[in-house]
Amino acid sequence: VIALAVGGGVLWLWNDAKVSTVGTADFRNELAVPSLAPSHVDKKDGTRVFDLRMQQGGKEFTPGRTTPTWGFNGDYLGPTLRARRGEKVAVRVRNGLDEASTVHWHGMHLPARMDGGPHQMIGPGRERTPRWSVDQPAATLWYHPHPHGKTERHVQRGLAGMFLVDDDRSERLALPKTYGVDDLPVIVQDVRFDGAAFDHGHKMMRSAGFLGDRTMVNGTLDPYQVVRDERVRLRLLNASTARTYAFGFSNGRRFALVGTDGGLLERPAAMERIQLSPGERAEVVVRMVPGERAVLRSHPQDNYGSGWQTRFNGGDDSFDVLQFRAAKRLRPSPAVPAALGEPELPEAGAAVRSRHFELGEGGINGRAMAMDRVDETVTRGTTETWTVRNNHGMPHNFHVHDVQFRVVEVDGRTPPPELRGRKDTVFVPSGTTLKMVLRFDGGPEFADPGVPFMYHCHLLYHEDGGMMGQFVVVDKGQRARTPAGTDSGD
Ligand code: C2O
Ligand code: CU
């Protein structure tokens, strides 16, 4: 019915009919919440140290059927890392797999050699310990492998986790903040099974990459979560490799969007839907009704997503994602504050240079990613405007390492509320041009002419296929150097 109202036409009716049988979950499993990663503080210099180990495992997503998986410190996904702004952190990353990989800190502002991109591979049995100072606002970030040409496969086997940053502002604000109780990580992935094993074949829309036929949250199929608080904060992460979702509640419940990829908004935005393409995050606060069962769903892509996915996926585009079972009596929660503070966005007026990126045939600006080619050289401490155009008959998105950018225009117009905050990944529908402002700040350790950061489409099959480029941050007068071959860790 919703589909008819929005789209009109026979196609949408047909989709709606299909939707009632596809992607419907029976919510029999309690939602797993990733544990908070233990850490210790180094007595010498105060660094908070975490341990991650990539390993093979097996997990019973369905009782009695063990699916071969990969995970960090466990069978599937990884623990939630958590640190405060101003802290020095180090993560000892060990590779217990049979093949080389690397771990990238998606959304984190850190020097290129710590970024875990494809130049910082870790061989089997080897390890690497990136260290940096957390110098960015509170946010929901995440980590995942980034081996060139193999990222889709490594992520969909289970290598992904969240990295939460806290600061004075996030601790002071009256937002739900008890992890696992009224502040929930919601890591959404689409999957398909062939018996017990994952089926990772590209079946539906081959050119998009892998599209599954059901979803899981935090590695739980058919998940439900019992809620005992009046308000719940959901940290939504689209950790799928290709699928874009439009999250909303089955009952049309509105929620407050309070944060985007890189931190809290200036003020909450009341929304009914939030669209997230692969790699994007959103923090939303939803108010529960005592005793209710509310379902977080992904609705057909009916906003600026142009319906592409719905049409080409044969209509399998609507999913029941997570059921909330509200207790009969809920603990009262404070109202969402009307103002959330200064979002720390770059200023368009400060831009000293502009660049253009075409996403299309052959990659970005007609070129496929090459490990030994630096595509762009950026000066540390400067602000730039980048325009990104999707010149292709399919959706892409655009992710930039190191920075949180500000989207200033979507096809010449003011962006919608969900694109007004700090972003590191943004959906770019076919035919659309986005304009963004980026500030490349950081201390002297951020200038590194020989180690590039990446920008790329976060539909991982596209990234693996070469829709990626490299930029270096240098100090004035420095020239980019050809990136050294990948080394393999200690
Ligand atoms: Cu989430 Cu370059 O990656
Ligand atoms: Cu793409």
From TrEMBL:
Alphabetical keyword list: Membrane, Metal-binding, Oxidoreductase, Transmembrane, Transmembrane helix
Superkingdom: Bacteria
Domain Plastocyanin-like: 61-169, 213-288, 358-475
InterPro entries: Cu-oxidase-like_N, Cu-oxidase_2nd, Cu-oxidase_C, Cu-oxidase_fam, Cu_oxidase_Cu_BS, Cupredoxin
Gene3D superfamilies (alphabetical): Cupredoxins - blue copper proteins
Pfam families according to UniProt: Cu-oxidase, Cu-oxidase_2, Cu-oxidase_3
Entry similarity comment: Belongs to the multicopper oxidase family.
Name used for this protein in its record: Multicopper oxidase domain-containing protein
Organism of this sequence: Streptomyces kunmingensis
